[in-house]
Amino acid sequence: MKFFIDTANLDQIKEAQDLGVLDGVTTNPSLMAKEGITGEQNVLNHYKAICAIVDDNVSAEVISTTYEEMIREGEALAALDPKIVVKIPMIKDGVKAIKYLTSKGIRTNCTLIFSPGQALLAAKAGASYVSPFLGRLDDISTDGLQLIEDIRIIFDNYQYKTEILAASIRGPLHIVNCAKIGADVITGPLSAITALLKHPLTDTGLAQFLADHKKAAEAAK
Ligand code: G3P
Fold first, then answer.
1. Could you report the per-residue pLDDT of 151-180, keeping only the tens digit for each?
2. How far is the CA of 77 from the centre of ligand 1 (A)?
3. Is the whole model's pTM more than 0.90, yes or no?
């Protein structure tokens, strides 16, 4: 399973990269705005800065919504760095843009997926990734994990190469459940990834090991 971090914050991306388990980054216009990144050139420079930190898979989202504008914007984003994956919203022109960009060898991530049918359409268009938003479905009392299970069945039935990128992850249990049902990738905040480290028995077990070692060392003096 690949781990992506869902942020445009360079410090957090560096911290996740330093941990040694990071496979990529996803951003969106809201995350870029949160970091105060505005203006076309600043946005492009920020994507380049992210690409300089990680090994691959930097999802950069278009902000246009027509076919012609999305392919122009997508090609400009892809030209920044071979690590860029162009993120395209699940709308009619978006499906057409995914088909075009795929034909040009540009990787795409179809975002804002909330139904199995949307994921099927994106896979047929050739998307490299589909991003079902797990947390946002859970937020409205709908089973986000069920959506990912349904997409897994459909993609396996037809051997689609499109990878399921479980997005809108809220915490460590989301990550574990996604792993159990075979999502290819998760993207979430750094806090959800580092929370996987924690177990109280690990802490008490380590404290006991170190105390026993110290006691034995003192006794041997
Ligand atoms: O980047 C897309 C997705 O992960 C958004 O997550 O937390 O805004 O629902 P969230």
1. 999 999 999 999 999 999 999 999 999 999
2. 20
3. yes
Interstrand relation of 163-166 and 24-26 (parallel, antiparallel or unpaired): unpaired
Buried residues in 89-103 as b, exposed as e (16+ CB within 10 A): bbbebbbbbbbbbbe
Helix/strand/coil for 172: helix
Give the number of other Cβ atoms within 10 Å of residue 37's Cβ. 18
Question: Contact 138/156 with Cβ under 8 angstroms?
Answer: no
Atom 8 in ligand 1: residue holding the nearest Cα: 168
Residue ranges and CATH numbers for the domains of the chain are: 2-191 (3.20.20.70)
Place of tokens 């960009």: 101
Torsion of CA 117, 84, 173, 10, to 10 degrees: -140
* Rounded Cα distance, 214 and 179, in Å: 39
Ligand 1 contact via 135 beta carbon (within 6 Å): yes
The SS3 call for residue 62 is: coil
3-state secondary structure of 113: strand
State the catalytic residues: 87
| Residues 59/81, Cβ–Cβ less than 8 Å | no
- Report the separation in Å between the CA atom of 57 and the middle of ligand 1, taken as the mean of its atom positions: 17
